[in-house]
Design brief:
Elements lengths: L4 E3 L2 E3 L3 H16 L18
Antiparallel strand pairs: 1-2
C-alpha cells in the first residue's frame, strides 16, 4: 500500500512510516464500512473545508 498527500495542489512528501501509517489507517477504517469488500483496489479520500 502507498499514499500520496496533496494539499491545495501541492504534493506533500512523506517518509515511509507516515505513508504506511496513513494508508493503513484509512484502509482499515474504510474496509469496516458496510458495502466495501476486502478486495478493493483503490480508495480516494477528498477533504475540503
Amino acid at each position: 500500500m502507498g499514499a500520496k498527500l496533496v494539499v491545495d495542489g501541492k504534493e506533500i512528501p512523506m517518509n515511509d512510516f507516515v505513508a504506511e501509517f496513513l494508508s493503513g489507517s484509512v484502509a482499515g477504517a474504510v474496509t469496516t464500512l458496510h458495502g466495501v469488500g476486502a478486495e478493493w483496489k483503490k480508495i480516494e479520500l477528498k477533504i475540503e473545508r
